[in-house]
Amino acid sequence: MPELPEVETMRRGIADVVGGTIVETRFPVISCKPIAVSPARPTLARQLRGATIERLDRIGKRLVIRLCHARALVIEPRMTGLLLLANPPDEGHLRVGWRLEGVPVDWLWFWDRRGLGTLQLLSDKQLVARYGPGKVGPDALAVTVDILRAQLAASRREIKVALLDQRAIAGIGNLYASEILHVAKVSPFTPCHQITIPQWRRIADATRSVLEEAVKYEGSTLSDGTYRNALNQNGGYQNHHRVYDRAGQDCPRGCRSQVQRGVQAQRSTFWCPRCQVLRKTNRA
User: Fold this and answer.
1) Over the stretch 96-144, which tens digit does the pLDDT of each residue have?
2) 199: closest CA among 278, 129, 142, 138?
3) Model confidence over 203-243: pLDDT tens digits?
4) Active-site annotation, residues
5) What is the spatial distance between Cα 153 and Cα 278, in angstroms, rounded to a whole number?
6) Fewest CB within 10 A of the end CB: N or C in the chain?
């Protein structure tokens, strides 16, 4: 967390910075763990001074601020990072701010409670070398059944674990993988190489529909309250979760079964044992 819907919400939420000129980069003095910044803070501030923001892109779970002179500022929020135009949840975890001119936005802030986020200023060539094809998979919002099968069908990993592989499909994390597989009626424990073509088709359709719906509701703010949109407001998709963090509750399909919780690759998995049956013919 944040996953694709949250980062896409950030990208759309800060759209007013496009066309602005960065006149100052400020690193507030705080007592908590610093985030990783490349190049070093004084160099980054100097190189960003006078840069114009040309557009905003997203690569999976990373937001990319495209700058003049073929450069890109890559922001990876990781667990608790936020991009904000409004007042932050608190000032003790403000990591960096950019003062802008020429747009209706005065400041763009990056806030990060746990300090796991990263900032990288890269040339366009470096961006492709680090995050281009072969390094990061196709974007999850654009997946098709053919893309999914090409990326995952030969794998012997369980489908839930495979969907988290950013080199295969970019943007899906633990929360949305559980939601996608419930909508697709596929057990999260099914090995990829045993998934049928109709199941792959349902997974592809569910991937797009779940992520598009989550973006519409501006992402999920969980019980810890960490994720917020650019105006420091809750997302709304948590009110529409089907299985994630709903262990012991009735399946929303009305199948007279309850959502179960398990662990895969050291992460919680949620599924309905009646809607998402692991068929005997699919057992590894």
Assistant:
1) 999 999 999 999 999 999 999 999 999 999 999 999 999 999 999 999 9
2) 278
3) 999 999 999 999 999 999 999 889 999 999 999 999 999 99
4) 2-3, 61, 267
5) 17
6) C
